[in-house]
Amino acid sequence: MEPKTPTTQTTRRDFITKAAVGLAAFTIVPRYVLGGTGFIAPSDKLTKAVIGVGSMGRGHFGYDGTQVVAICDVDTRHLNKAASMLDKGVKTFSDYRELIKLPEVDIVHIATPPHWHGIMSVDAANAGKDIWCEKPMTHTIGEGKRVMEAVQKHGSMFRLNTWFRFKDTFYGMGTTVKPVKKLVDSGLLGWPLKVTVGKHTGYDWKFYWVGKDNLAPQPVPAELDYDRWLGPAPYKPYNEHRVHQTFRGYWDYDGGGLSDMGQHYIDPIQYFLGKDHTSPVSVEIDAPQQHTDAVGTWRRITYTYEDGCQIILDGEGKDTNVPYIEGPKGKLYPGFKSDIPDLERKLAAFPEPAPQMTDFVTSVKTRQKFALNEENGHRSCNIVNMGLIALRLGRSLKFDPVKQEFIDDEGANRLINPVMRAPYTI
């Protein structure tokens, strides 16, 4: 058997691509032919490794068409609990860099806090792996650029784990996004459009994800490698409220309810507005002054695109009777209700939205881009990160969607690529 090197990984990927083109159905091909060791055919399960096996990571063990062969966590309690849920042969690691070197791993699933998503995604792509990453895609705009570059350079398949642009009832709308996309494409609402995301259109901003500004240093638990948990984030004394379930309340690792739910809510809007290859040109905020460490709440965030379309994030539930989408010709409310007479009959005359690749196992086997990938995922994550930067700075901002940088604001641009704690880099 030939050595399992990056060259072998490339050969394996080329083999899958050629096989997918030449066959209508997948043939039984031993994994050793493709450069792996598990003797699992492409017609069967792909192998997966999960980095971060707290409650989120453990919830992703059972996806159809995949088999978990390795796990990683810097907390031994999480690692041991996760290992007890899997086959005895699963490999366990405290350092993800060892895990991504495994030649038998097809997919690396990243379920860590967001401040790790960028570095791990780039390292996994450099190691020739396909990637399934939790939302938000990255903690900064600059990290998103680096992920996109690495994934495309190495030909990896990338899936971001928010799925509302292609399946499941879309929160308060009472429907999947597909008919919303069809309605927007039809032009029946007119243009430009304003989309309001808040309590009265069915969206909860989870303002319980706020930090504490008076954390007292505590001893680091024996089971936790806190230095490795921090990774690229600035060093701060340990307190249990910084880690695990409550990390979302601190700017160094996440961004509160906006970062937790923002990409779930905003990514489908990018999709149905047809904005997957661009970004808003401005972000305006109405919020209390934020603490430098602990994330707080906000009242309203308004994003505006070059063509006048807007996304309104209503944090205080101010707009009680607001439509979800409002255009010059009509409005759409939760439950797919509209002020357009006989909407369903009129809509039936228009074509359905283009089909999407919505199965990641098939994406990996055929090398077809997943519906939510490194490109459109980066763009919708940009919107979240634009809002977080504006909140941290306490001011509204102008943005260049081509250069992907802020206009005439050096302070904001420094937060696109904030300095990472040595020796970490991306």
From TrEMBL:
Q: InterPro entries under this entry?
A: Gfo/Idh/MocA-like_OxRdtase_N, Gfo/Idh/MocA_oxidrdct_glycsds, Gfo/Idh/MocA_OxRdtase_bact_C, NAD(P)-bd_dom_sf
A Pfam family matched in the record: GFO_IDH_MocA
Molecular function GO terms recorded: nucleotide binding; oxidoreductase activity
Which keywords describe this protein according to UniProt? Oxidoreductase
**What residues does the Gfo/Idh/MocA-like oxidoreductase bacterial type C-terminal domain cover?**
173-426
Taking every annotated instance into account, which residue ranges of this chain make up the domain Gfo/Idh/MocA-like oxidoreductase N-terminal?
49-160
Q: PANTHER family of this UniProt entry? A: BCDNA.GH03377 (PTHR43818)
The name this protein goes by in its record: Predicted dehydrogenase
